Amino acid sequence: MSAADFLLSPEVQKLLKVAYAGADSQFPVRALAKATRLDEDEVQRTLDHLVTSGILTRHKAQADEPEAFGVNSQFIFHAELRSIALKSFAGAEPLRAMLRSRFKDSVLRAFVLGEDDAGTIEVLVVHGQKAPEQSAMSEAIHKLSKATRRNFAVHVISHTRYGALNARDSLHARLADGSAFEIIKPGDSKAQAPMERTGFLHSARKKLAALAG
Q1: For residue 211, how many C-alpha atoms fall within 13 Å in the half-sphere facing its CB?
Q2: What angle do CA 126, 204, 170 make, to 5 degrees?
Q3: How many Å apart are CA 16 and CA 90, to the nearest integer?
Q4: C-alpha angle 97/98/99, rounded to 5°?
Q5: Domains 10-85 and 91-194 belong to one CATH topology
Q6: Counting beta carbons within 10 angstroms of the beta carbon of residue 51, is it exposed (0 to 12), middle (13 to 18) or buried (19 or more)?
Q7: CATH entry 1.10.10.10 includes domain 10-85
Q8: What do you get for the CA distance between the two ends of the chain, in Å?
Q9: Following DSSP, what letter does each residue of 144-176 receive, concatenated?
């Protein structure tokens, strides 16, 4: 069940997934029906509802071009709705499903760091004992981008590197930002954290890293 099911119908979610992925793009009914695999009449009814609600805007037909629809950035709850979409059906949920199915043995944690103005979603993946193959990850992200019509910028780091992040790291700042959120936690997958090394030298390194932070 989507985290937005309580608020948005499946038809609305499918249409907004395409609309938000397109940023400032405008879409005619036929293009939206094809992208969402919904009937054109159903798409038209849903669009009329979204326009009346103020969520989308209607752009009148010009010359031989049909009328089109796009996101209304002036909608009073635009920022909140975009955040809901990112944290559920239009970002986090398909990304989480892909990582948990394709990389369940390697992805220990995963975070959505945020979304830029062009709609690109930045992701941090933390692997455990086993690192995901770079080619396999690239291929999976490419397929996900085509399926969701979103672009993803993915950082893959080890659990050890994640534990050593400090205030001087840009990733540390992104994780501390209020827009970042975790989509896979330890225990959500079969990935195992690397064995902790013991000994005086390792303990000293950890203390130095903490002091440097």
Answers
A1: 6
A2: 35
A3: 8
A4: 95
A5: no
A6: middle
A7: yes
A8: 40
A9: HHHHHT--EEEEEEEHHHHHT--TTSHHHHHHH
Q: What is the pLDDT along the chain (213 residues), one digit of tens a residue?
A: 555 565 689 999 999 999 988 767 899 999 999 999 999 999 999 999 999 999 999 998 887 889 999 999 999 999 999 899 999 998 999 999 999 999 999 999 999 999 988 889 999 999 999 999 999 999 999 999 998 889 999 999 999 999 999 989 999 999 998 889 999 999 999 999 987 665 555 566 666 666 665
**Residues constituting the chain:** 213
- Asked whether the beta carbons of 58 and 67 are under 8 A apart, the reply is yes
- What is the C-alpha separation between 143 and 90, in angstroms, rounded? 15
Q: Assign domain 91-194 to its CATH architecture.
A: 2-Layer Sandwich (3.30)
Domain boundaries, the chain: 10-85, 91-194
Residue with tokens 């609309």: 19
Q: State the Cα–Cα distance between residues 98 and 103, nearest whole angstrom.
A: 8
Concatenated DSSP letters of 27-66 = EEHHHHHHHHT--HHHHHHHHHHHHHHTSEEEE---TTPP
With 0.85 as the threshold, say if the pTM is over it.
no
Query: Distance (Å, rounded) from C-alpha 151 to C-alpha 110?
Result: 17
